[in-house]
Design a protein that fits this description.
106 residues; globular
Length: 106
């Protein structure tokens, strides 16, 4: 399963109203570190299928949401639960760091 594409338009439905915890990767095409963690995000979307939603939000095309949540550097991963930010991960970090924070939100 691939990560879902999150946009300014579907953010409320896919993230804020989600019954499952949601991990969003705020990224951009031109961002080198974003490309480093992209395979990890893809892998997690398969591993956590049915337990959490994994999504990607392109900050160049969805600036409203990025600005609303104060995303200033990318990649930034935000973990939402019950419509609120539960955790933030900034930068290309090891997979186990992402997994540990996601596990605490489940």
């Amino acid at each position: 399963m691939k990560p879902i594409t999150i946009t300014d338009e579907n953010f409320e439905t896919e993230v804020l109203k989600s019954d499952l915890p949601v991990l969003i990767d705020f990224w951009a095409e031109w961002c080198g570190p974003c490309r480093i963690i992209a395979p990890i995000v893809e892998e997690l979307s398969a591993v956590y299928e049915g337990k959490a939603k994994i999504g990607k939000l392109d900050v160049d095309n969805n600036q409203e949401t990025a600005i609303k949540y104060g995303v200033r550097s990318i990649p930034t991963l935000l973990i939402f639960k019950d419509g609120k930010v539960k955790d933030t991960i900034i930068g290309a970090v090891p997979k186990n760091q992402i997994v540990n924070k996601l596990e605490t939100a489940l």
